[in-house]
Specification:
The chain is an all-alpha fold and about 140 residues long. It is built from nine helices and no strands. Helix 1 runs antiparallel to helix 2.
């Protein structure tokens, strides 16, 4: 199944695989990784090997990790979600680990959709509330026009 995914991700001629080609494979690998720890470790070794090259963005390159990271910013929502689910399962449900392997920008949309990105809102005190107008004069002038 991993070879099939690699083949679909490596379509020649710059074509993009369709949703019906990728989503079932990504979902099946995700469920297998969640259900069987040995499969998760094998898939992680193949898709997310230890990071060696840190001077290159995660989505740039030809490895499985690079190709799946590119899927995280796909306009096909089901492909994006399936790719994120697989990577998240391989990272044992750890958002920080997902960001480590995919980069914050690539994972941000997926994490936000899952409610895993936001921090709790800070509690405002009376002192904090008194300084709410932080607009500059230039911004205020443009805003009033």
């Amino acid at each position: 199944m991993l070879h099939f995914l690699e083949e679909k991700l490596s379509i020649a001629g710059g074509g993009k695989p369709t949703d019906d080609q990728l989503s079932p494979v990504l979902c099946t690998l995700t469920e297998a990784a969640k259900a069987v720890p040995v499969i998760r470790r094998f898939l992680k070794a193949q898709i997310l090997p230890p990071l060696r090259e840190l001077h290159q963005r995660p989505e740039v390159g030809t490895t499985m990790r690079n190709k799946i990271c590119r899927l995280l910013t796909s306009t096909q929502i089901s492909v994006r979600d399936s790719a994120g689910d697989l990577l998240f399962a391989l990272c044992k449900g750890n958002a920080k680990r997902l960001i480590k392997y995919t980069g914050y920008g690539n994972a941000a949309g997926w994490l936000a959709d899952r409610g895993l990105m936001g921090l709790p809102a800070p509690v405002l005190t009376a002192e904090d509330d008194s300084d709410t107008n932080s607009d500059t004069e230039e911004y205020s002038a443009v805003k009033s026009e």
